[in-house]
Design brief:
heterodimer, A: 114 residues, mainly beta, five-stranded antiparallel sheet, globular, B: 114 residues, four-stranded antiparallel sheet, 57% strand
Chain lengths: 114, 114
């Protein structure tokens, strides 16, 4: 079955630095991969999507890379701010039963300190 | 996301009780989903529906049932609640017309079964 690995340990960084979160997957080659942000007690919010034929996608201070050879996506937040503190989930599509559905990783918690 | 609402937001119940969680959306999406989230396990799919007449089991449907009353409403029931169903439950929607399954989540229902 598809397995998604995100670092279960929290990532602590200093304000202004670049945060880099990792998402690794096995046993499948997704057509696209998505990143979501989740704040405590709230539902995940979609941030970015990157397709298998795209190496990199940017949105403001966010950058996502997708390496289908390594089966890995990296999520970067540049010039990080305390407001970026949250849990970040990666999700990839899996084709099963005639349609695509999303499989989510457990998420990595990011803490940005002033 | 105010476009997807869930009721109740919190519920404490006893083992053996029947519980219904409700989800409504104003996004006009065809697809609706129910997930549960447990610490360290990420989001796991319980049931999903691609339209009113199409309901499918997810990876952890045992002990749960659903009803798609209308395009905008999707309810999750626990027929006889047990303590290991204590979790955070999320409803989500996505647009069938898009080639990617970007999902929009409700605020969640925190369910405690004593």
């Amino acid at each position: 079955s598809q397995k998604i690995e995100q670092n279960s340990e929290a990532l602590n960084i200093q304000e202004g630095k670049t945060a880099t979160l990792t998402c690794n997957y096995t046993n499948y080659s997704p057509a696209y991969l998505q990143w979501y942000r989740q704040d405590p007690g709230r539902g995940p919010v979609f941030l970015l999507l990157i397709r298998e034929n795209e190496k990199e996608k940017r949105k403001e201070r966010l950058k996502v890379t997708f390496d289908t050879t390594l089966k890995q996506s990296l999520f970067h937040i540049t010039a990080s701010q305390p407001a970026d503190s949250a849990t970040y989930l990666c999700a990839l599509d899996m084709f099963s039963g005639g349609y695509n559905k999303l499989i989510f990783g457990a998420g990595t918690r990011l803490a940005v300190h002033p | 996301d105010a476009d997807v609402t869930q009721t109740p937001r919190n519920r404490i119940t006893k083992t053996g009780k029947r519980i219904m969680l409700e989800c409504s959306q104003t996004k006009g999406h065809d697809r609706m989903y129910w997930y549960r989230q447990d610490p360290g396990l990420g989001l796991r799919l319980i049931y999903y529906s691609f339209d009113v007449k199409d309901i499918n089991k997810g990876e952890i449907s045992d002990g749960y049932s659903v009803s798609r009353q209308a395009q905008a409403k999707f309810s999750l029931s626990l027929e006889s609640a047990i303590p290991n169903q204590t979790a955070l439950y999320f409803c989500a929607t996505s647009d069938l017309g898009h080639s990617t399954d970007t999902q929009y989540f409700g605020p969640g229902t925190r369910l405690t079964v004593l």
